[in-house]
Write a structure and sequence with these properties.
With about 450 residues, the protein is α/β, with parallel strands linked by helices. It has 3 domains: about 5-25 and about 35-80, no CATH class; about 115-185 and about 265-425, 3-Layer(aba) Sandwich (Rossmann fold); about 185-260. It has helices spanning about 20-30, 85-90, 120, 135-150, 165-170, 190-195, 205-220, 225-240, 245-255, 270, 290-305, 335-345, 365-370, 380-385, 395-400; strands at about 5-15, 45-60, 60-65, 100-105, 115-120, 125-130, 155-160, 175, 280, 315-320, 350-355, 370-375, 405-410, 420-425.
Length: about 450
């Protein structure tokens, strides 16, 4: 077959001299039948602004795509629809029947092409979901969770608002509440995090405690409050500290036992043993300071378990990601999450970041995520990620703040999503916990 140029319509305007304000008014006054709806009227036409995307050639093995390196001559026949298989090839979507295809919705437009993303390509390169409150972020996250569950992929969700609790239970998963049925071992916290929780200010006390933590960390084994206390006494004695100093340090370390989320830790190998398991961490009751410590500890434990092969490939989703990867100061979670983003692709560990204020996210992290879902969002926030919108035309970008709920712009690199496209997220079979409650009934 001849080569076909695939174009994207940015804007379109109908020119219809048969339906001008004055002639319409006269027709209405005299009851004249309107004939302007016909598509074969001589002076009626549509002017569209387009952008060439790909040159497609059909071969025995499917379509071969090339960059649009030719000029389409005037008078060329234009088709307003293309076959689904060609549309998928142009957008980089796999066949929806493929085992690794994540089915998320349908492209907005006449074709309604199914949006199917290749899990093996998209997930290890990480995902970003942004949008204002009530635009569809949590609905999409739930849709992704359902798809992962159906395909046997494990998922851990850091749930700041408790929105995924019922959906998790409906999929046979487990909900954990930090401080209640989920504890993190002291050894999963970094040295500054541990020191920040022990109320010591005297230089000698700080030196003894720091050395004790360093010694225990060097052992690379799990340790708790009792281990830290014993090691601190041993270090203090080696420093020649007096008994009252040792008593003060012991008493300060004992106060760690009053922190509800410090404990034995979760057996992640057992928690993620079943195919398609969803683990939802309900963090609603945690204050900000404890929230970052808990998420940092969980991420370290899961990352190490995956890196050593103790648990299968998995995805971790984090709501309100700007709290853990802020653009301004360094949170406790920033270091470990940055490491996960850099190394996740090499160990089959994907990360999904969700935020309503991408302007507060670390800019370098935003750029590293290779697949991005942009829901309706304020122009000021949209400007913060403008450079991460791939080849989305300005007309579409301009309309993002006015997108209806459940519709988003999907962008990526050529490995994940070849060309930016607007799509509507599909239906869900599980409970949606992110609905805005009614104020008046």
């Amino acid at each position: 077959m001849d080569r076909v140029c695939i174009i994207r319509v940015s804007t379109a305007m109908e020119h219809n001299p048969y339906e001008e304000p004055k002639t319409s008014q006269i027709k209405d006054m005299f009851g004249i039948q309107d004939s302007s709806d016909g598509s074969d009227l001589i002076r009626k036409f549509v002017v569209a602004e387009t952008e060439p995307l790909e040159i497609a050639t059909l071969t025995d093995n499917g379509y071969v795509l090339e960059p649009p390196n030719l000029i389409v001559p005037a008078g060329t026949v234009v088709y307003d629809d293309i076959p689904d298989d060609l549309a998928r090839a142009v957008l980089g979507f796999p066949d929806p029947s493929d085992k690794g295809a994540l089915l998320l919705g349908n492209v907005v437009g006449s074709s309604g092409t199914p949006v199917a993303l290749n899990a093996n390509v998209v997930l290890p390169r990480h995902v970003l979901i942004v949008g204002s409150t009530g635009t569809g972020k949590s609905w999409l996250l739930g849709k992704i969770a359902e798809q992962l569950h159906e395909r046997g992929l494990r998922m851990i969700n850091i749930d700041i608002h408790g929105e995924m609790n019922r959906a998790t239970e409906q999929m046979g998963g487990k909900v954990y509440v930090p401080g209640k049925d989920l504890k993190v071992p002291l050894s999963s916290l970094a040295e500054p995090e541990i020191l920040g929780m022990v109320p010591v200010q005297h230089d000698l006390h700080i030196d003894i405690l720091t050395k004790a933590v360093i010694n225990l960390k060097a052992g690379k084994t799990k340790f708790g409050i009792g281990d830290l206390k014993s090691e601190a006494i041993r270090v203090g004695e080696s420093y020649g500290a007096k008994q009252n100093t040792l008593d003060i340090i012991s008493a300060r370390i004992d106060q760690l036992g009053q922190i509800p989320f410090i404990g034995q830790g979760l057996d992640w190998k057992a928690a993620l043993s079943e195919s398609g398991t969803i683990v939802n961490i309900d963090c609603r009751m945690l204050p900000q300071s404890q929230l970052q410590l808990v998420v940092a500890a969980i991420t370290r434990d899961v990352y190490n378990a995956r890196r050593t092969g103790a648990i299968p490939p998995l995805v971790m989703a984090i709501d309100e990601a700007h709290l853990f990867l802020p653009a301004t100061d360094k949170a406790e979670t920033a270091t470990v999450l940055s490491q996960l983003i850099r190394m996740g692709r090499h160990i089959a560990f994907g990360l999904i970041l969700v935020s309503q204020t991408p302007g507060d996210l670390d800019k370098s992290i935003t750029k590293i995520t290779n697949t991005r879902f942009i829901f309706a969002i304020e122009p000021s926030e949209l400007s913060s990620i403008y450079g991460a919108l791939s080849d989305a035309p300005p007309e579409i970008v301009k309309g993002i703040p006015r997108m209806k709920s459940g519709t988003c712009l999907l962008v990526g690199n050529r490995e994940t999503v070849r060309h930016a496209t607007v799509f509507e997220v599909g239906g869900r079979s599980t409970h949606h916990g992110g609905e805005t409650p009614t104020m008046l009934r």
